[in-house]
Amino acid sequence: MAEQAVKGEEHDYTERNKTAVQADPGKKPRRKISKDQWVALGFLAPSFILVLIFVYGFIGWTGWVSVSNWNTLVPDFSFAGLKNYIYLFNDYRFQADLRNTVFFTILFIGLVIVMGLGLSILIDQKLKGESIFRNIFLFPMALSFVVTGVVWQWLLNPSTGYNQFLAVFGIQPKWYTDTNILAGFEWGSIEFGLPVAIIAVVIAAVWQMTGFSLAMYLAGLRGIPDELREAARMDGASELQIYKKVILPMLMPITVSVVIIMAHISLKIFDLIYAMTGSGANFVTDVPGVYMFETTFRGNYYANGAAIAIIMLLLVAVFIVPYLLTNRRSGN
Amino acid sequence: MAAFNIWKPIKYLILTIMAIIFLTPIYVIVVTSLKPLDEVSLANMWALPTAIDFSSYSHAFSELAPNFMNSIYLVIPATLLSALLGAMNGYVLSKWKFKGSELIFTVILFGMFIPYQSILIPLIQFLRNIEMYNSIAGLVLTHVVYGLPITTLMFRNFYANIPDTMLEAAKIDGASFLGIFRHIIIPLSITGFVVVAIWQFTNIWNEFLFAVTITNSDSQPIMVALQNLSGSQIVQWNVQMAGALLAAMPTLLVYILLGKYFVRGLLAGSVKG
């Protein structure tokens, strides 16, 4: 299984390593460090310092910008308190973005899992030509979200594309140009509900990312020994029961991984939507990633842009931090 | 099993229908890009061209060629550097563990998941200050730094599968940290380098957010140019499709030729160590 290959061994290399080397290259060691261990730290230090500055330092800097008054072309780092955040949460566009992100994320993750699991089970049936099918479902993963966006804006264009086939059934969805909000109710200054237009973007994103969950599930299915299914069959379980009671529970860790990775892709999504639809009428396909880009780099509202970025980071952290910490703990 | 025979054609049918749906975008790209201008219309999207016409490719190529080269100059050094640094980190974090090395690994790994919007404003200020803004070199630096978490993760997991006994033996023979890296680890990492390089190549080639914010006009990589082409009202739709195919070609070729390694990278990068 994918997981076992990746977990790796955890035991220390030698006794000397255990006692001698300190976590922080800057701290004074308590015991003598061998030359090799100094070289090892020298290998790691440049990357670690780069990450500390470019990831953690810059996040702190962005946080600082987000509470500043820098909403013009000229940097202004005077303290503004939470003004920019308060502005955003009262902003029509940002409220719409949060709504769109919620529905995009749920639909996107749900469909990627259902499609990936379904197709991987079908491919795992020892059918002839399974590698052809696998390659067809996986190739969109090699494409850029920009390419996907450019192509799908035509496929889901209301006046052409798939609508030419759907005309046979007499339905002509308006896809990403639809401004309806399904099951909507007043929430802040927007209507909260499923924006129909977001479905078009979800379809394009699912087309691109299904290969990911397919590959993950396929690796998982290949890791389940045949004897296990055989044993369940001997006990009189039907094929459906085997999947429900034996195989799906065993694939649970993979599902968790897929959810986490898809969630972080979906919460920060920018290029697909920027290339395919843009913000849309009434911001029906707008997301924080697009708003951040436009307000910062097209409108020079740097502090507002920084505040959006920090909110995006916090949303992602809600998924990622517990995941990283539990992985670390189970690794030890 | 009688049931098996009934279900088999149904399984094929479902897979085939899904495969056809998955391929429709490629069909539209190829068919449209080969049409002469007078056959390009919304109503005839799905129709085959009556004659094969490569003029949309020559048009797209003349528009995108400089940006295509920018992407080449970006992706090669960025891929090699981030892979090399990842190998160095992975070696230490898997074979020379020390107190706190797991924490350092987690600290590095977190960088893989952050939305890059959250570092973009300082990054651009920083690149302006060191006069690397709006340059390929600035993008190379950016991709090397933010590629570190994933390449470190991939190499660490890769090296975890090399038995420690092998290193112990070399150490008893007097091999040093560097000696082991050069004579044992590097020769054993060829597959690892291929997997990581393919992954980084694909990601950097396809990346858009850094590309569109750090560069403008002459130094823009291909994906920004493609986006500009598709956003332009005067550029015909067949040219956009030809441009999309040109932009996608390098990563598609890598996938077709080395798909096995691409999938290995996908699996290795997706599950945290």
Automatic annotation (TrEMBL), chain A:
Mode of membrane association: Multi-pass membrane protein
A Gene Ontology biological process term: transmembrane transport
UniProt biased composition (Basic and acidic residues): 1-18
PROSITE patterns (alphabetical): ABC_TM1
Cross-referenced CDD domains: TM_PBP2
Cellular compartments annotated: Cell membrane
Gene3D superfamilies associated with the record: MetI-like
Keywords for the protein's UniProt record, in alphabetical order: Cell membrane, Membrane, Transmembrane, Transmembrane helix, Transport
Family label: Belongs to the binding-protein-dependent transport system permease family.
The protein, known as: Glucose/mannose transport system permease protein
Species, as recorded: Sediminibacillus albus
Taxonomic classification: Bacteria, Bacillati, Bacillota, Bacilli, Bacillales
TrEMBL record, chain B:
A single Gene Ontology CC term: plasma membrane
Residues spanning the membrane: 12-34, 71-91, 103-124, 136-159, 180-201, 237-258
Protein localization: Cell membrane; Membrane
Annotated CDD domains: TM_PBP2
Record membrane topology: Multi-pass membrane protein
InterPro entries: MetI-like, MetI-like_sf
Domain ABC transmembrane type-1: 68-258
GO annotation, biological process: transmembrane transport
Any Pfam family: BPD_transp_1
SUPFAM superfamilies the UniProt entry points to: MetI-like (SSF161098)
Keyword set, alphabetical order: Membrane, Transmembrane, Transmembrane helix, Transport
Family designation: Belongs to the binding-protein-dependent transport system permease family.
PANTHER family per the UniProt record, alphabetical: ABC TRANSPORTER PERMEASE PROTEIN, GLUCOSE IMPORT SYSTEM PERMEASE PROTEIN GLCU
Protein name: Glucose/mannose transport system permease protein
Lineage: Bacteria, Bacillati, Bacillota, Bacilli, Bacillales
